[in-house]
Amino acid sequence: MTGAKMRRLRRVKILATLGPATQDPAMVAKLFEAGADVFRINMSHATHDGMRERIRTIRALSEHYNREIGILVDLQGPKLRVGKFADDAVMLEKGATFVLDSDPTPGDVTRVHLPHPEILSALKPGDTVIIDDGKIRLHVTESTRQRSVAVVDVGGKISNRKGVSLPDTEIPVSAMTEKDRSDLDAALNEGVDWVAVSFVQRPEDVAEVKKIVRGRAFVLAKIEKPQAIARLEEIIEISDALMVARGDLGVEMPLEKVPGLQKRITRMARRMGKPVVVATQMLESMISAPVPTRAEVSDVATAVFEGADAIMLSAESAAGDYPVEAVEMMNRIAQEVERDSVYRVVIDGQRTTPEATGADAIAAAARDVAETLDVKAVVAWTASGSTATRIARERPAPAILALTPNRATARRLSLVWGVHAVVTKDADDVDDMAKRGSKFSNREGFSVEGERIIIVAGVPFGTPGATNMIRIAFTGAES
Hints:
By secondary structure, this protein is of the alpha/beta class.
């Protein structure tokens, strides 16, 4: 089956997480056929052997369908947890005093071990401590390097090893644990396309990962902590892409702030030319039900209207009862939104002034020419992917066909809005660019003989980021 037959009829991409419900290669194939463009492997739950097996499955699928499929490995990041209790659990009453300390003795209703000295060192009076995804909420009244005394604001049952979140505290630790370093090495050895960094607080967290990766994969920063919001522009600048990780963001910040932050992050990422993924609980009810709620449908539609590059399924595809149906539903919602007459109005209304570079000016001009002449495709010759990504930032009405000599580039572009990537040898000259651009546009189903396309490229050839040429061409018959 050809890549053209599997070409998506939508611009936004779908990212599906693999897990226990989708381990079988036949099931992974069904997810791809249903609409998944990129597969996520969550290292919070995957072993190295399990990761390798899934990567082999995806690469074989890509070969079978002659279509580049992206793989994103999501690093777990530093998981902060309380210690254990003598009776496995206690009930905390509102207004009670509760101590977090460095004593490894099992806890009781008055105290518990916090096996993270870096947290105890960083906590200060007034800081909020959230336990078990918001079920327990405390505020610190006094703190030393060995213990923090807190008052219970929201009480309830607390049991062994529950997670801890610190919305007010910047923790002086790396976003990379030893487990993450091991997982990252294994993922890079397998040639994954994207690496997601969890619990990013500062741009230095992303820089640390990029220093290890050394261009072997693209690095995506997950925005899920208030500290990251405070330095958002710097983090976007250094990252290759962003994820609005609404789960943890909604734990550490008031829930009512999350929708506004989603819009802010999406728009800032687009302005800066970086792909953005909206994630978490998009079709949550489909973990156990064959249809989503109306609110979930609206949530997915909102992300598409906002111009997100990709929308993600987590447990819905990884561990749910209806993984294929969840992808199919997300695909149908996205297609319907993009057909809606309001869609182009919203997308066009979010455009910002191009950056003052030749490449960005060319991308904006290509969009204007494409829409003025009603061309069928914008064909981007790209070695690094930057030309196609710049054009995607402009959200043109025609499809974006990326032609690249690098398979890794094609796979990475599978996350980018509107881009259909094909691997081919580099062009010999400008005429060859136009001739083969025409051939691939017809072959991939974007145009037929005699229709207009636009060619965008950088001259001299093979110079990353040197986008400096637009050419209008008429497609001819395939030779």
